[in-house]
Amino acid sequence: RKAEQTLAEICDNYEKIQCDERSHGRLPQLTKKLIAIETTTTDGPQQTNKNDDDRMTSYADMFEKLLYIQKQLADTASSTDRFRKRMGEKDTVTGNPRYGAKTQTRVSQLLALFEELDHILSLLFGRDGEISEALLNDLKTKVKKERAEAEERARLEALTEKQRLERIAREEREKIESQKRAKEEAKQEIERQRQERYRQQQEAIEAERRVRLESERVDREWVSTITKGSEGVEEQLSILFESTKKDIATQKNAVKALHVIFSQICSRPEEPNFRRIRRNHPKFTEDIGRHAGGKEFLIAAGFEVGEIDGVPSFISREPNLESDMDKWSAWFDLLKASLQILEEQIKRR
Hints:
Layout: H1 2-19, E1 40-41, E2 44-45, H2 59-87, H3 101-125, H4 133-224, H5 230-243, H6 248-267, E3 276-278, H7 282-289, H8 294-300, E4 304-308, E5 311-315, H9 325-348
Antiparallel strand pairs: 1-2, 3-5, 4-5
Helix pairs in contact: 1-2, 1-3, 2-3, 2-4, 5-8, 5-9, 6-9
């Protein structure tokens, strides 16, 4: 099978050369088709070794490919000689031919294909293995022409590149001159623009300050309406249940989200990230913030309205444990109580 595959590859390589437009149809055609060695075995049909990317791009490639085919066929000669010898041998015990009928057919096809390839290469290279003078001279002429064309292309490309670099340099000089003029012209505008920006910045700062103050006022009024402590927690949880009673799945999701928040804080009160909730976070809004009693539950449980890095947030500020143990205990007790209220309501419902 290895010999068959090698010959299949040789046939494939030769047919690529023979069909290439550079050969001008002067190379003999193979009369033995590849089907002659694509025999079916228990492993399925053997395939020829074709590579769509193995294309010739020059006469030099064609010349190298012919030399490669010559070497491939020479490397196969010893194995084909053994096949030819065994074709005439018989089993010493049974007296039958060494090869069965199917194997004889395959070997005969292999030898016929080898002999045809050998004959074709002998026409091209001669029996001494040297390529014929006419073909060699023709290929050399074509290779020389290709090289001359490549050198001319390289010269034109170099010229084009030189012109491109000169154009870039010229454009760069013009750009620098233009920038200098623009800088000079803009000099008179710089101070006016600076003052205008400053005025706009001050107006923006003032507008932002008024908005912040108004927002803080609204938040203070809103927070003042909420009862703090366990009583307020129970009240806001009842409001949350009432506002979501028509959608039990949404209700459970809201209570679960609150439970997660307070469980995390109670398990690790020293972790500030658990005690900071962005007010406009989409997930918070979806699970808790959009429901009556949701945000209010946090305020009742000791959360404050504030900002973290400029982002409006709900913040549970941990008192200093060392300086005010009582205040810290009251803060943490309310968190635990809120968690307990949640868990009791979850069990009850």
